[in-house]
Design a protein that fits this description.
The complex is a heterodimer of chains A (230) and B (185). By secondary structure, chain A is mainly alpha-helical. Chain A contains eleven helices and three strands. Chain A is elongated. The two termini of chain A are 27 Å apart. Chain B is mostly helical and 185 residues long. In chain B, a hairpin with a 2-residue loop joins strand 2 and strand 3. Chain B has one domain: Methane Monooxygenase Hydroxylase, Chain G, domain 1, CATH 1.20.58.1020. Chain B contains six helices and five strands, in the order H-E-E-E-E-H-E-H-H-H-H. In chain B, the strands form two sheets. Chain B has a three-stranded antiparallel β-sheet. Chain B has a two-stranded antiparallel sheet with strand order 2-3. Classes of the chains: A mainly alpha (230), B mainly alpha (185). Chains A and B meet through helix 7 and helix 9 of A and helix 1, helix 5 and helix 6 of B.
């Protein structure tokens, strides 16, 4: 069944894939921010205060999902300003560069790479790093997203070996401990590695040439149809 | 691609058999085979050799390289070198499996051959992982893997290309080009 099913994968760049379920879930993650202007009659929605007529005062702290932050963020009209979540800040970036393997990216993420890439969209003019960009005169892009991205790239490279080794060596083992600390992207990669290994081992044992019932069909047999209906 | 499909390609390799029947030259789409004479060696594709063997119509002659001495040499050479060494056949793993499964009675010291080929495979896969790691670490964009066989590429291939694809995307984020400003109206 899985061969005939082509889900839309995550975008992993500056742009998400519109129909990717992973990207939709990723863009729900909350982002710390601040209202730069008063937002009338939105206090209820954003969980600040009670009455529906209440407005969000200028400068109040907000936790907004990424999709909303992307929509409201504009370098010219200041509606909101976005802050970096703490795992993308300097302190955590140092941890990642020290040893990327010790970090539990599933707890931090679970879409660490995708979310980090999306954060590059917020070129906030008030960031001192942006001033530095003008200083460096590199034109497009700011120092902040670049350094940010170098880290997440290093994180990926640093963790690559471990994912490869564990996915290609663990045969017929319980892999839940191995994938517990992996980001969603890394988990997908781990599954691909496992599939390569498993397919090869099956072939070597001669199981590939035997025809077996689909696991789906086997599961159907366990319960009678009437029970499923009832 | 699945290992079975790689095996399908491997079955096109030629092996020598000694038939115990006689048959005129047969004309197949991929080339002519035969004539078959009892006791006289003839070259046929592996798929036909296995089929004839199962019908007890031939005896299989193991390929020249399927020999304990030669395979030990290959294994030692593989362990010594940093890069991949040329294999005796582009489908050494598949041929070993097929021939040993269906015609182990015609191959002398079959168990030792199985162990040696498995050792060589393990050495090469460990080497592949090592070189993939340094490839990623140095952020290279191309590599040359001349002597890798299809089965080896196929086992680690999807994983590797997908990982490199992710890496490429994360790296292009470093150079925000025109596309990154599509949000500015």
């Amino acid at each position: 069944m899985s061969e005939a099913y082509f889900p839309v994968g995550p975008g992993l760049g500056m742009e998400e894939n519109f129909l990717s379920l992973d990207d939709i879930l990723m863009s729900q993650e909350k982002l710390p921010g601040r209202a730069e202007s008063a937002l009338p009659r939105l206090a209820v929605l954003l969980g600040q205060g009670g009455g529906s007529a209440e407005s969000i005062p200028e400068g109040s702290k907000l936790e907004i999902p990424l999709w909303l932050a992307k929509g409201l963020h504009d370098s010219k009209r200041r509606i909101i300003s976005v802050e970096l979540p703490k795992i993308y800040k300097e302190a955590w970036r140092t941890v990642f560069s020290a040893d990327a393997n010790v970090v539990d990216l599933h707890k931090m993420g679970p879409y660490y790479y995708g979310f980090g890439s999306q954060l590059l969209n917020f070129e906030n003019p008030e960031n001192p790093e942006i001033a530095q960009t003008i200083l460096q005169a590199t034109g497009a892009g700011s120092v902040l997203p670049v350094s940010d991205c170098v880290r997440s790239l290093q994180t990926f490279i640093g963790r690559f070996r471990r994912i490869m080794d564990s996915s290609q060596n663990a045969y017929n083992e319980d892999t839940s401990a191995l994938v517990a600390r992996l980001d969603e992207l890394e988990r997908a990669l781990f599954q691909v590695g496992q599939k390569g290994l498993n397919d090869f081992q099956c072939w070597e044992k001669g199981q590939a040439s035997q025809i077996t019932a689909s696991s789906l069909v086997q599961n159907y047999g366990k319960r009678k149809l009437t029970e499923v209906d009832g | 691609m699945e290992p079975a499909e790689v095996e399908f390609l491997a079955e096109k390799e030629l092996v020598t058999i000694v038939p115990n029947f006689s048959l005129d030259r047969i004309h197949l789409i991929g080339g002519d085979l035969g004539p078959f004479n009892p006791g006289l060696p003839v070259e046929v594709p592996v798929w036909l050799a296995i089929n004839l063997k199962q019908r007890q119509k031939c005896r299989l002659v193991p390929p020249e390289w399927m020999d304990v001495g030669k395979l030990e040499e290959i294994r030692d050479q593989e362990r010594k070198e940093d890069t991949f060494t040329p294999m005796p056949s582009p489908y050494y793993m598949e041929l070993t499996k097929l021939l040993l499964n269906y015609a182990s009675d015609n191959i002398p010291r079959a168990d030792e051959i199985r162990t040696l080929v498995k050792d060589t495979w393990d050495t090469r896969m460990a080497k592949l992982r090592l070189s993939a790691d340094s490839f990623v670490r140095q952020q290279e964009i191309h590599a040359k893997l001349d002597n890798l066989t299809l089965m080896e590429i196929n086992t680690a291939g999807t994983f590797l290309t997908q990982a490199l694809d992710h890496m490429y995307k994360l790296r292009t984020n470093l150079q925000p080009g025109e596309s990154s400003h599509s949000q500015d109206f």
